[in-house]
């Protein structure tokens, strides 16, 4: 029988540091809720706004898959692997921290805020060699379609993760209906509404609501208005 968890936008943790305004779907930093530690391998889902010219100073990570998805503006990235790049809207970035990597992320603009999703996925292998990846996806490619932007394989579409996880983005017109079929038995899917209104398996969802489902084979998705949607299929980790 299908199981689910609903996280309404207004129930998220919130921290405003002035330069950083962040909403936490799961426990993070000073926000701690024992009932909201993770959804399977999905450990962190932060909805961040960074003020112009500001950012996260250089800091280390180990044994985590870290995905950044800019929603507006440009994010400047530097790391101890020698990468220095700008992540823009329609890009998806992944950093496999593995045995250890240090990085910094800051707003590339001195005039406009940058909005992005910071997502952490627990890997299925520890102490791998650190790795960086970034891809650009055309907005047209996800119009009325669930476009795969992350997968477990470098030979599959999207950036690749050290986890049996698949991410999809869709920009859906009002009235559009589709189905998402899970790719691996035992996985769950966490849906996060970026904009607009959708109904998934009978549950009405609105902007920044999160809805996790597991012990299901498929999701029935209908856009109740023009909408943007992120689906994250992950192992449930027992």
Automatic annotation (TrEMBL):
Fe cation binds at residues 59, 61, 103, 105. Its cofactor is Fe cation. One of its GO terms (molecular function) is metal ion binding. Gene3D superfamilies: Jelly Rolls (2.60.120.10). PANTHER family: QUERCETIN 2,3-DIOXYGENASE. Belongs to the pirin family. This is Pirin family protein. The lineage of its organism: Bacteria, Pseudomonadati, Bacteroidota, Cytophagia, Cytophagales.
